[in-house]
Amino acid sequence: MKHLLSATALLLGSALAHAQSAHWTFTYTGFYDHEAAVFLPGMQISGSFTGTDLNADGVLELGELNSLTIGSMDYIACGTRSNAYYHCGADSFVFSPDKGLSFSLGEYGSDPEGWRGGGHLIESGKMSYEYQFDPYTTTEHHLYWTEGTVLSMMSASPVTPVPEAPAWAMLAAGVGAVGLWRRRPAKFAFLVRQ
After folding, report:
1. Which residue in 141, 142, 137 sits closest to 117, CA to CA?
2. Of 22, 47, 145, 182, which is least packed with CB atoms within 10 Å of its CB?
């Protein structure tokens, strides 16, 4: 019985092993406005992201994100609405406290005929680009990252832990092994009695 309790405690401990989900906010300040031909020191692009480093390599990648929000748009959640005439989503994302933040995302589209459309694309470290067009006008706005662009980031306290799939698999395998171990002595005792 003592061995059964020890095995069960060990299995439960391994099942509770989990990766910690974390939330970060970020702000880029200072951009070169191409159309106005001026550096705007107070111009900001702000956002946040939440994710879990599932493979524990110290780098948060696109597939490990739960959300990536800039303004009011969550570029992870909006991906399900993409179709032939509308695209929304993050195309790349990498973050580590040592190496910094890098991402590419956007929302853009047009009518089926291609007469009217617009969008907003951001590639961190390079450019934020907005455009609109119709048969009569086209407008564009470019903000470029420069050496004067400053990134500030803040980590919020960790959010709810997310159990890893391997932890659940270990629990299932362990419970099965304990079950087989418990059945074996009972079966053997039954055979000896006969």
Report:
1. 137
2. 182
Buried b (16+ CB within 10 A) or exposed e, 146-177: eeebeeeeeeeeeeeeeebeebeebbeebeee
- Kindly provide the b/e burial profile for residues 51-88, where b requires at least 16 CB atoms within 10 angstroms of the residue's own CB: bbbbeeeeebbbebbeebbbeebbbbebeeeeeeeebb
Cβ neighbours of residue 35 under 8 Å, at least 6 residues apart? 140, 141, 142
Q: What is the pLDDT of residue 184?
A: 52
Average pLDDT value over all residues in the chain: 81
Round to whole Å and give the CA distance between 32 and 149.
9
H helix intervals, the chain: 2-15, 165-193
pLDDT digits (tens, 9 = 90+) for 10-29: 444 443 345 678 999 999 99
